[in-house]
Sequence to fold (138 residues):
Amino acid sequence: MGTIQIANAGRLWRIGSAAKPVNQSDRDCIMKRILTLSIAIMAVSALSAGAADAKTTYEKDCAKCHGADGKGETKMGKKQGAKDYTDAKVQAELKDEAAFKAIKEGYKKDGKEVMKPSEGLSDDEIKGLVAYMRKFKK
Fold:
């Protein structure tokens, strides 16, 4: 039969074949495990939230030209010459740094602005958008 550990009156108790207090080294080990697990849960939550935020931002600000599917086959995308981000060759040619710069500063082609700079996005949010765009590759 397994043991169950419970906290009562500020002490940790191990319940199994016989109830007894947990010694300090066991308590430290348990607390380290709880802390590690808590940090892991928070990190996964933050990553999931960041991915959701990137998707929301893409759908709100980028999809009108680049398309919800990343193919760039929208009316505005065709007019501006948006690339097909589902194409592995296009993805390979576009470096993360260049994508980051285009999102942050905008993009000009032949002296004409074809993509406006992002407004109000942090560097981490822009990195999230670049990572989201990479998911379109087939």
